[in-house]
């Protein structure tokens, strides 16, 4: 009810109020400070000459300046025949799941991919006497304490279907 009443007052005589505001004279802007006008500088020819005049003393100083730049010679460090282990040597092939194209192909030793983690957790849940922590550590090149923590704190999702209730039970 209050909205209707306020709308009536808001829209009352809108056209005449709008035309009255439009027909008013626009207020004149405040005068600007005389030093802020750039067109005054254009009138003074002495200032323009000073701006565009070349200073011979500065030009001679500028001609004396000579800059020469050279890149330092590139030095290649020779390892002296030492071969450091390459990270590619530390990778192992993954035990791929059913999404072979989307799975990660190589993983660093001591780490596992998500697909492998789900597979080993599911295998341990289904057959804990076969897939022990020691066997998982050997199979996936992991440390035993990491595998024990993984099996203790992570559990794969399980889908449980409950029987549909009858109408009488509801």
Automatic annotation (TrEMBL):
GO terms for biological process: mitochondrial respiratory chain complex I assembly. Residues 17-27 have a biased composition (Basic and acidic residues). GO terms for cellular component: mitochondrion. InterPro entries: NDUFAF4. It comes from the Eukaryota. Binds calmodulin. Interacts with NDUFAF3. This is NADH dehydrogenase [ubiquinone] 1 alpha subcomplex assembly factor 4. It comes from Podargus strigoides (Tawny frogmouth).
């Amino acid at each position: 009810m209050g909205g209707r009443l306020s709308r009536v007052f808001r829209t009352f005589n809108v056209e005449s109020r709008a035309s009255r505001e439009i027909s008013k004279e626009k207020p004149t802007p405040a005068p600007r400070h005389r030093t802020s006008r750039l067109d005054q500088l254009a009138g003074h020819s002495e200032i323009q000459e000073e701006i565009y005049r070349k200073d011979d003393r500065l030009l001679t100083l500028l001609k004396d300046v000579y800059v020469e730049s050279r890149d330092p010679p590139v030095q290649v460090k020779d390892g002296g025949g030492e071969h450091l282990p390459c990270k590619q040597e530390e990778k192992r092939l993954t035990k791929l799941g059913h999404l072979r194209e989307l799975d990660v192909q190589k993983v660093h030793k001591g780490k596992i991919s998500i697909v492998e983690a789900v597979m080993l957790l599911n295998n341990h849940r289904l057959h804990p006497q076969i897939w022990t922590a020691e066997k998982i550590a050997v199979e996936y090149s992991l440390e035993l304490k990491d595998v024990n923590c993984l099996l203790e704190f992570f559990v794969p999702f399980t889908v449980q279907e409950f029987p549909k209730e009858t109408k009488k039970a509801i």
